[in-house]
Amino acid sequence: MKIETHPGQNLRRLAVMGGAYGNVPALEACLRHAHSNDCDTLAFIGDATGCCGHSDETLALIRRNFSILVAGNCGCLAHQYAMRSLSAENRKWLGDWPDLALIETVVGKILLCHGSPARTNEFLYESELDNGGLNAWLDQFQAVGFFCTHSGLPWIRRLAGNRFAVNCGVVGKPDHDGDPAVHYAIVELSNRTAPPSKVAIERVEYDYDEWANQLAGEGVDEMFLIPLRTGEWTCGLASLPAAERRLNRVAGITSQRQTSHL
Ligand SMILES: [Fe+2]
Predict the structure, then answer these.
(1) What is the Å distance from ligand 1's center to 194 Cα?
(2) What percentage of the chain has pLDDT greater than the value 90?
(3) How far is the CA of 213 from the centre of ligand 1 (A)?
(4) Cα–ligand 1 centroid distance for 19 (angstroms)
């Protein structure tokens, strides 16, 4: 696995985003949100392109705004939409992204991965998390915490000793809770206060109706547009654990902003 190390001693507010899937207005809304919330560093942890097409536009936004990158996985039906709007130059650039990134911050090393620290295409679901396994990964990389994405379902898991594991959700698709908003994570880092850091899953709204109408006009399958409009997934449900498969409308309404002091 290719690992890239980044200095981060001056980093105070890190935004972590993943899973844009070519959803340009949702990514733009998350970028505006992160910049207006004083994030000094932005990391994108994979799956830039996907079902919406618009790959080159999405990658232009990522080039301009993110200083830390991690590779995603690609495949499935959505791949055809992604590839037809992806230049050879950007295809090559995507191939250069590392599998993992390690940031050396004031609170310790933070690991960024796509699926899990072990596998780019592993899904880490909240209902199946095992603290022992999460701690073993942190031990392996001598890290205080890690961020992943890939599943599309955000969560925060606090671990003993101010350690943490976070799924930042995805910026290109809602999280199957009947709410069309999208998600990313912000972590605050400080060595002056105890506990040393705070992490939040941010909920971001954008004009999903206008975007879905545009994509329909461009020939994108309705199965990809329904989740954007309704916040409910149309595919991939069979492989979810039972707890995640259930449409959780209550969570969508109440977890406007999920924060954990670490
Ligand atoms: Fe993925």
Answers:
(1) 34
(2) 78
(3) 25
(4) 7
**More confident call, 49 vs 236:** 49
Residues with CB under 5 A from ligand 1 (ion): 47, 72-73, 150
| CATH architecture for segment(s) 3-261 | 4-Layer Sandwich (3.60)
What is 204-225 written as a DSSP string? Answer: E---HHHHHHHHHHTT--HHHH
Ligand 1 center–CA 71 separation, angstroms:
9
Compute and round to an integer the Cα radius of gyration of the chain: 17
Closest C-alpha among 33, 24, 41, 36 to residue 188:
41
Domain ranges in the chain? 3-261
Q: State in Å: Cα 149 to ligand 1 middle.
A: 7
Cα of 214 vs its chain's centroid, Å: 24
Would you say residue 253 has pLDDT above 50? no
What's the predicted TM-score (pTM) here?
0.93
Separation of alpha carbons 181 and 12, rounded Å: 26
Residue pointed to by tokens 């690992």: 3
Task: List Cα–Cα distances, 120 to 15, 123, 176, in angstroms.
Answer: 20, 9, 22
| Nearest in space to 45 (alpha carbons), one of 12, 6, 80 | 6
Taking the centre of ligand 1 as the mean of its atom positions, its distance from the CA of residue 184, in whole angstroms, is: 14
